[in-house]
């Protein structure tokens, strides 16, 4: 999905004085229409290019079985496959029965760099649940469009009684 950025909205706002000038100077409104068409098509093609560019790979690493009422560590592995540094917004949608923090974050990756980000969740009940998806958002080349992608589809997990305590015993 291609989304607008604050920079795009700033450029749209720059067209407002031009539009107001069209009320005073006849024929100036044609430039406003042309300006908006160029801006919209630049936004669209910048976003499409960023979708094909696809610089970031992400993967969630977790145990297949989590323990109820205990902190379970979830790991997100991110890799920039491009040469250009990129800032990525990551949102991992945790299961409905879990309380977690740190599952939304912003991270800067240099060219060809890999990073690992960890966060914890605490399941509140046992049963079969699922991570609902891992989403990333990164800017296009001109900074007027950003691309949001679902990297991982929903992933089922099982939550059992405190398995970590049994392992320690």
Describe the structure.
This protein is of the alpha+beta class and about 170 residues long. Helix content is about 30%, strand content about 45%. It has a five-stranded antiparallel β-sheet. The protein has a four-stranded antiparallel β-sheet with strand order 2-4-8-6, with no helix packed on it. It has a three-stranded mixed β-sheet with strand order 3-12-9, with no helix packed on it. Strand 10 (about 135-140) and strand 11 form a beta hairpin. Helix 1 (about 5-25) packs antiparallel against helix 2. The model has no long low-confidence stretch (mean pLDDT about 90).
Compile the SSE list and pairings:
Layout: E1 2-4, H1 6-24, H2 29-53, E2 56-61, E3 65-67, E4 72-80, E5 86-93, E6 98-101, E7 104-109, E8 114-123, E9 127-131, E10 133-139, E11 145-152, E12 155-160, H3 163-168
Parallel strand pairs: 3-12
Antiparallel strand pairs: 1-11, 2-4, 4-8, 5-7, 5-10, 6-8, 9-12, 10-11
Helix pairs in contact: 1-2
